[in-house]
Design goal:
By secondary structure, the chain is mainly α. The chain is built from 14 helices and no strands. Helix 2 runs antiparallel to helix 9 (171-194). The radius of gyration is 19 Å and the shape is globular. The chain starts with a helix and ends with a helix.
Length: 297
């Protein structure tokens, strides 16, 4: 963790997780551009809103996991700012409010452009950013986080980005969103697999805690292979001329390496590296899928 104030907040924002917020916006924008519906201001607003909500959620997670005892001095994941005493709980709570408050600004434009469906998505996204680890029934503590990540970092984010640009909706953004949602869910799975013992002691009932290590490993495998193979093939079948999206299947190769790691390793440092590698796979998939959609019609 960085020693200087700016670095502390950058590290606490968990930059390696921001691909999960940016990737759906990238794909949604590419899909819109491929249909001659690109809208630059809406695309930038969607990206800023997604990144700020993700940062706010990460700050809230840092704060609430500290309060609930899930983050301790012996944690095997990356150091957390509140637990490490680098910032006070009050400062982290304020930072959460600032990040989520700033997210409202681009959100207002998106609501102006897209109407009540975008308002609903925005309100729920802000709410769940806090309820992910906060509130009386936090999603991350009852095993519901995987479903939330699949839906909101997947079809909701991609289709929402597509909609605010084209003001229409079709099947492809929803299907493409399944891929980003599944890979984001796989990132969460690695995180939960790494923290399984500490989460069990803290009463954090993730799916890995509820159903065990084998379940988490198979969850990762199924999520990655479905996202990287089945979804591009499905989109290509629906949009017969868009064979370029199959370029995204190349990311199966690094995914085989991370999957092997998930099935054979349990130490924290190795799974930390695997988590970061899975984030890079998500970003690579998004770039290849988007480029293939635009360049090969």
């Amino acid at each position: 963790m960085a020693k200087y104030p700016c670095g502390i907040w950058i590290d606490a924002a968990r930059p390696h997780t921001l691909a999960a917020a940016a990737s759906p916006v990238l794909i949604g924008t590419a899909l819109a551009a491929g249909e001659n519906g690109f809208h630059g201001v809406a695309a930038i607003a969607a990206l800023l809103g997604a990144l700020l909500i993700q940062i706010g959620a990460n700050y809230a997670n840092d704060y609430y996991d500290y309060l609930k005892g899930a983050d301790r001095s012996d944690r095997i994941g990356p150091q957390r700012a509140t637990q490490a005493g680098l910032v006070t709980p009050r400062q982290m709570r304020l930072a959460t409010a600032v990040a989520l408050g700033l997210a409202i600004l681009p959100g207002l434009y998106l609501v102006y452009r897209g109407g009540w469906p975008i308002l609903l998505i925005g309100v729920l996204s802000l709410l769940f950013a806090v309820l992910y680890t906060g509130g009386p029934l936090p999603l991350g503590y009852i095993g519901a986080a995987d479903l939330f990540v699949l839906v909101f970092f997947g079809p909701v984010a991609v289709a929402g980005t597509y909609y605010v640009q084209t003001l229409t909706l079709c099947t492809v953004p929803i299907l493409a969103g399944l891929a980003t949602g599944l890979i984001s869910m796989a990132i969460l799975t690695v995180n939960n697999l790494r923290d399984i013992e500490q989460d069990r002691q803290a009463g954090k009932k993730t799916l890995a805690v509820r159903f065990g290590i084998s379940f988490a490993r198979w969850e990762y495998l199924i999520a990655m292979m479905t996202a990287l193979v089945i979804v591009p093939l499905w989109v290509c079948t629906i949009e017969g001329g868009r064979r370029g999206v199959l370029a995204a299947c190349v990311m199966v190769l690094p995914a085989l390496v991370t999957t092997r790691t998930v099935f054979t390793k349990q130490d924290g440092s190795t799974l930390n590296a695997c988590l970061a590698a899975t984030g890079k796979i998500l970003l690579g998939f998004s770039l290849l899928f988007s480029g293939g959609w635009l360049l090969w019609k």
